[in-house]
Structure formats: C-alpha cells, structure tokens
Design a protein that fits this description.
This protein has helices spanning 4-7, 43-51, 56-61, 86-94, 118-130, 199-204, 328-337, 358-365, 368-371, 425-437, 457-462; strands spanning 78-82, 105-110, 135-140, 153-155, 164-168, 173-175, 188-192, 195-196, 211-215, 227-229, 235-242, 245-249, 255-262, 267-271, 277-284, 290-302, 312-324, 345-352, 376-383, 415-421, 443-448, 473-478, 481-486. The chain is of the alpha/beta class and 492 residues long. It has a 17-stranded mixed β-sheet. Strands 4-6-8 form a 3-stranded parallel β-sheet. The protein has a 3-stranded parallel β-sheet with strand order 10-12-14. Mean pLDDT is 82; it is low at 1-7, 9-32 and 487-492.
Amino acid sequence: MNTIEDSEVGLCKASMELGTRSRRRSPEPGPGRGADYLSALPDDLLLLVLARLGCAAAAARTGLLARRWRGLWARLRDLAFRDVAFPSLQVALGRVAVPPPAVSLLEIRVPGKIRPAADAVTSLLRAAARLAPEKLVFGLTGHLPLQDPNPAGVDLPCFHRATSIVLEWIPFVLRAPAAGGEFPALLKLSLTGCKVDDLGTLLSLCPRLRVLRLKSLIWLGGDDLTTVHSASLQELVMESIWTHRVDIVAPILKQLTLSSWAEAQVSISILAPMIQNVSWQWLYDNGTIGFGLWTLEKLRLQTAQRQGQLPSLLIHASSSWYSFTDEAANFAQEIEKHMVTDFFALELHLRTTGHVFGEFVLHFLGLNRIRSVIRRLKVVRVRQGSWGDEACPANCPCDTMNWRTQTISLTALEDLEINGFEAEDHELDFLKLILHSAPMLKTVIVKLSDEISSSDDTITKKCNIFRAYPSVKCNVYLSSGLMHQSQNCLLT
C-alpha cells in the first residue's frame, strides 16, 4: 500500500521514505502474551515518553510496538527532523495537524546528499509556516552556498507566532515576504551561511526583534549586507563578515559583536547611544592600510570583561619591505573609524625585523581620541628573523629624527609596559620621550628580549634614565623572571 498511514512505520529511517513502506502490524495481546500496560496509558503520558526521544523519526518508529502508538508523534509540541531525506520532509510535515495544539519547536536539518531545488525549499518552508511554530530551526547541512552570478531565490513565508528563527546554509537567495507580510512576534533571528536579498527590508518586518546574529553571510554585491537599522534591537552579532561597509542605527542596542575582514578602506557609521558591551575586530589584507614601513594587520576594540579591566584598543602591525608614502592622514582616519566606543588602554603588537617603531607608536598617541584619555600603554615588540640580522640600511625611512624631539602630552597615562625590549638606542629614546610626556605616570614594566642575559652589564647602565623620575615605580624583567625592582630606579 502507498498511503501515508501505511508508510508511518518507516519514518525513523534516515531517508524517511514515507511513501513506499508497508505497515507492519504489531501483535495484539492474546494467550501466552503479556498485557500491554504501557499502551494503556493516556495520550498525555505517552506523548511525554515520545518527547524524551528528542527525534520525530524515533518517535514515529514506536508505531512498530503497537497500533496504539501510531500517529502520536504528529502531536508532539517539539518536532526535530535531523538527517532526513528532503523528499520525505514535506509529507511528514503534512501529517502534523495545524494548531491547536501549538508546535513549540520545529527543527529541520536536511543532509547534504542531493541539492534540493529552490522551489522545493520554498514549498518546505511554507509547510513549516503552516504549523506556526514558536521556534524554527531550518538548515541545509552540507549544502554550501554557490557563487552563482544569478542565484535562484527562496521566498520566506511569514511565521506569525515564531519568537526565534534560525536559518543555516541555505544555498539560495532569501527574499523577504511580500508587502503585508510580517514577523510580529519574532525576538531572535540568526542567519548563518545565507544569502540575503535585502536585509534592511527583512528587518523592517520584525518590529519586536531584540537579538540578531549574522555569520558567514554571502555578499551579493550590494551594501545592504551590513546595514542594520532597528528600533527594537538590543544585541547584534556579526561574525566572519567580509565587507567594506557597516551602517548600524539601533537606538537601544546594548551589546555589539563584530568580526570582519577588509581588503580596502572601510566605511563605518554607528548610531547606538545606549551601547554597553562591544567586541569589535577587523582583519586587514597585507598592504591594505599602512603608515611608513608599517602595515595594519588586525584591530580589536574590547570593552571591559571583568572588574578592574580597562576597555582597550589592540593593534597588530608588521614592518613591510615597501613604504606607505603620504598615508599618515589616511591611516589616522582609518583607525579613528573603529573607535565606536570609549577605551582607556592601548596595546600595540609590532612584528619587526629590527625597524625603529618610535614614530609609528607616536602617530597613534597623537590621535585626539587617544592622547588625552589613554591610561595604560603596552607595546609588544616581536622580532622577525634571527638575532643580529641587519634590518635597517642606512637612511632607512623607518627612522626619521624628528620624532625624538616631538612634544606630546599624555596627561592620563599611568601605566607603561614594553615587552621584547632590547635596549637599543631608539628604544631608549622612545622610553625617555614617554617618561617626559606623562606627568601622571606611576608604573613602568620593561620585559627584556629572550636574547638578553643577566650578565649583560650594558642593560643596567642604559637604564639610568629612570633616576630622573623618582616617583615612578620601575620593574625590569628578564625572560626568566624579575631582574630588579626599585621604587625610584632600576639600579642597585
């Protein structure tokens, strides 16, 4: 027989072939057989048993036990179809009665064996919307989006009762419902590995949306991918986004998480006056943005995660073989674009083959948003290549003399830390300049390079500069531990 009823017993199979399986009837109690007390339980208790299975297919297979169980799975409030063959899904959803009772969770994860057609995905989503679930999870596992110049579209139906929707790895362009459609109850929306035709239009149909998560979205060539305007949004997460433009207008947004790549200068506009927690990270292609011989690699802005921690801006940069000429203004503007919230600590990680870094660091400290507010400065020098390798030729553009005589006022700076210190002349000049420019400085920590040993007498001699600043507590560390600690200088 080919009826839906006769195929129910095969629902648990991975392929969910509902249309070709004949019914196996369970034996009825009789002479020599025990009474089926479990099947005598009321439906509500049997449904509790089925719910514990966590899988609609497994729940359907209980129909093999006795006729009494058949069809009960379709009355579950939580329905999870995982690794179910696509052709069987719509038939299975058709077995579920429309509310009431209401479906609390509908989870559909289709295995990536055969790529379904866009029309079939649209039809399946409509079948899911018919059940009006409170929570929807829909993913085409393994069906990675294709870089098709003219990708097919999938029309999203309206889920009027849904408070949470998760869509993952749908290899088609998602189109918002037509005019008049809306997601009136939606509070959380998560899109992973999807193509979105018009994110702005989709968000406008979610008047109560509080949490939006976007991950690995596929860029369609327009600007709307990272344009988020929402009057109700409180948390926004954008991860693994490759873009050059971010436009956020969210008047009650409190938490923002973003990780992105950039291959050119970016455009950033954020209006979120109530924001409290920020985790902001951008990776730049090598050679995209730079200053002098230094190229920007990574930028991260992080609000405090624990008590006593300062909101911080972290920069990774490396010395390059070519020079960015006349790029000082562009570099400063690019950095300032990312200052989307206040911070009071600056950390610079510099990968160098021995180039002078003083001018590059002072360029950061000269920015208006940094100079007057920074309380803690940390410079981490990471030498590339072997110790003693000649890095700077004569008249190297990394070292212009004017930075040593530069005047800068770091009125808020209290703590300075330098890691990978080699006590070269340019490093001492930089240290002197900071000591002279920071009247509120309280603590200096210098961690020497791994190549410097405790027997190097020149280190102690070179650190005489601390004598002129008796109010500053100075600590110098070898890689193996504390070398010397003094309230007013490093000398014993």
